[in-house]
Write a structure and sequence with these properties.
The protein is an alpha/beta fold and about 290 residues long. The chain contains ten helices and six strands, in the order H-E-H-E-H-H-E-H-H-E-E-H-E-H-H-H.
């Protein structure tokens, strides 16, 4: 009798451990897509160089970015910058531009890719939030229900309403961000000190310079982006995925160090051989004389 009970307990323990193992190891069934739309003054090169940084914050998730084109030819192109500002001004008045239509197609494709149970995490920065605001007016409510919006220093605030039933929506603003004062709802929320539904999050500037603090990967917004990245990993990536990725990063770092040391050793050996040959040449010349 006692042995039978002991056997049952052992089976229960083993079953519990197996269930726990598979619950930890299972890959998250929810499909996700990480998208990003930029603000003023971003070239394709900027997007391609910053997308891997965002990807690392989100546990290596691929960033399917939509490039909001800029008129700037280079970083110091003031004429191009003013043209971008003019375009943003017309969008602020409600003008639907080609960039808006392009983002509608981009988000719609992302929603279709994740399916009826999936989630699109959409990052919108500066003018990109305004473009997103206009684009979402052209998407269906059932499409918006699959989208989580993370806006940083947005030129428009995105809210959860009956017309825009986002799955989740957060507007991050540094309290010295110049765009705060062209978004009445954000400014009002900051002045009142009371924010409902966690749709607004106001950040203490890390730099103290409004331009630097407005940058998406500057210290201020990067800290909020890192928080959102960790939230994404815990919610949508399994423990095994996170552990294996960490081990892979360590392995890659070790390989890089090994390659660097081998290259240094190779250069040292080649240099030593060249020096030895030089001495042999000198000795041969002296002997021949």
């Amino acid at each position: 009798m006692a042995s039978s009970r002991l056997h049952q307990r052992r089976r229960m323990v083993v079953s519990t451990m197996v269930l726990l193992f598979f619950s930890i190891c299972r890959v998250q069934a929810v499909k996700t897509r990480l998208t990003w739309v930029n603000g003023i003054g971003y070239s394709i090169k900027h997007m391609e160089s910053e997308a891997p940084v965002i990807s690392r914050l989100f546990g290596g998730k691929h960033v399917d970015f939509y490039h909001n084109p800029t008129s700037m030819v280079h970083d110091d192109d003031r004429a191009g910058y003013y043209r971008d500002l003019t375009q943003a001004g017309t969008q602020k008045l409600g003008r639907i531009t080609q960039e808006v239509e392009g983002l509608v197609r981009h988000l719609r494709a992302a929603v279709q890719a994740v399916g009826s149970r999936g989630t699109v995490i959409h990052i919108a920065h500066s003018q990109g939030a305004l473009v997103t605001f206009l684009a979402c007016q052209r998407l269906l409510p059932k499409e918006l229900e699959r989208i989580q919006v993370l806006a940083f220093g947005g030129a428009a605030a995105l809210r959860q309403t009956n017309d825009t039933p986002f799955q989740r929506c957060v507007n991050y603003y540094s309290i010295n961000d110049p765009l705060l004062f062209v978004v009445p709802s954000a400014e009002q929320a900051l002045r009142s000190g009371f924010v409902s539904n966690e749709e607004f999050c106001f950040l203490t500037p890390r730099v103290g310079d409004p331009i630097a603090d407005h940058h998406l990967l500057g210290p201020t917004y990067a800290s909020a982006l890192a928080y959102e990245g960790l939230r994404y990993q815990r919610k949508y990536q399994s423990l095994v995925q996170r552990v294996l990725r960490s081990l892979l990063l360590v392995l890659v770092a070790l390989i890089k160090v090994l390659i660097k040391r081998c290259a240094t050793l190779y250069r040292t050996v080649v240099q030593a051989l060249q020096t030895q040959r030089s001495w042999h040449t000198i000795e041969s010349t002296i002997i021949s004389r």
